[in-house]
Amino acid sequence: MRIITNNERADVLVHALPYIQRFQGKTIVVKYGGSAMINGELKAAVIQDVILMACVGIRTVLVHGGGPEIEAMLKRTGTESRFVNGLRYTDEETMEIVQMVLCGKVNKNIVSLIQMQGGRALGLCGIDGSLLKAIRITDHDLGLVGDIESVDTKSLDTLLDSGIIPVISSVAVEDGTGNSLNVNADSAAAKIAVALKAEKLVLMTDVQGIMRDMEDPASLIKVIPRSELDALKKDNVVSKGMIPKVDCCITAIGGGVKRTHIIDGRLLHAILIELFTDEGIGTMIE
After folding, report:
1. Is residue 79 one of the residues assigned to a domain?
2. In this structure, what is the dihedral angle of CA atoms 246, 267, 167, 257, given to the nearest 10 degrees?
3. 281, part of any domain
4. Can you give the residue range of the structural domain that contains 124?
5. What are the pLDDT digits (tens) for 35-68?
């Protein structure tokens, strides 16, 4: 393996300087999920990325899912798992497991990893201080599944102003009843980004980004205006699992977030490469 010289290390830092200056003091919301939550090496890289972002003055919010962990616990308890239009049907028994896994195990493990690497983090779920208030989705019979209606930005701003990374699990409180609701993590990240007037929303996935041909890595669309997304959906370039992610980006941009990014979380340090290099690695929507 070739040893990187000191001059090359310096070049990397100098190359990143304009981006650090541009984003210093700005808010960036990262949705953390997919393989990067399972693979140990990828997980470590994500933790290092968000700590570095916070250290250079970027107000960094980490919103996480935990589908595989939830699925494993449902199987362990013999609880049936089913989906409606890509969303997990959540009855009371499933909601208890979702809350236990997301707000407990997954959230606190992420916080612990950040702090072990020298970062400062605080784990939250939407129930804490009514951080995320939601209304139940009634278009389809999904059970205890909601859509975020409001975000308490005061508590988040207090943490961010102190250099603390909020780590947020996507369980919300139902407005009016106090019930816990399961919320899609991508959607939660988008709503949080809008509420915080974030500079960027970054969605980590298990694909390169938006591609014109899923079989051809060279067909990655690196930059696309929001105005062209509807045509891509109509032409089935954006299809299946990419549709809800693109819809979240549309929500974020429509709410004032300047740019959104869909990046491949299977690559080491994907967040830093996308934010601090000219080339990037995923799809930027503006």
Report:
1. yes
2. -40
3. no
4. 24-275
5. 889 899 999 999 999 999 999 999 999 999 888 8
